[in-house]
Amino acid sequence: MSLKIDRFDHIVLNVADVEASAAWYARVLGMEREEFAARTGTRVALKFGRQKINLRPMGTDTVAWFTGVHPTPGSDDLCFVTGQSVHEVLAHFKAVGVVPEVGPVERSGALGPMTSVYCRDPDGNLIEVASYGD
């Protein structure tokens, strides 16, 4: 018997400023902020679809918040899928003041060909918003 993974439940993103990151992901990507209790106090997460991103503030004790060996803000590359066209993504980015770094460009995603637009979050993480519909 082998293990079969269905999907991500959540990821943890190391951030310099939880409030700035939470506000950016809500404003730019439409995610819903959630606060939840943990053994070390209140934490902030961003919910979307059936997943969430937990925001881990830098400087948090790695014993209190079990995490990777070298937590660093701005070292991630995340791809989010939307049902909207990349033209709608570009129009939304313009409306909220986000300047795309690259795109639209064709990429190969988990489900096949997709069209992507890239930008950066407040920590400099590379954020890809992709559409399989274009």
Share in β-strands: 35-45%
Q: Which word captures the global form?
A: globular
Mean pLDDT reading? 91
Count of distinct strands: 8
Within the largest sheet, what's the order of strands?
1-4-3-2
Using only C-alpha atoms, the radius of gyration works out to: 16 Å
Distance between the termini: 39 Å
Largest β sheet strand count, sense and barrel closure: 4 strands, mixed
Helix content: 10-25%
Q: In terms of per-residue confidence, which ranges show pLDDT below 50 for 5 or more consecutive residues? A: none
Q: What structural class do helix, strand and pairing data support? A: alpha/beta
Tell me the number of helical segments per DSSP (H or I, 4 or more residues long): 2
Q: What order do the helices and strands follow?
A: EHEEEEHEEE
Task: Explain how this protein is built.
The chain is α/β, with parallel strands linked by helices. Helices cover 16% and strands 43% of the residues. The strands form 2 sheets. A 4-stranded mixed beta sheet has the order 1-4-3-2. β7 and β8 (126-131) form a beta hairpin.
Blueprint of the fold:
Blueprint (H helix, E strand, L loop, with lengths): L9 E6 L2 H12 L2 E7 L2 E8 L2 E7 L19 E6 L3 H10 L6 E8 L2 E9 L5 E6 L3
Parallel strand pairs: 1-4, 5-8
Antiparallel strand pairs: 2-3, 3-4, 6-7, 7-8
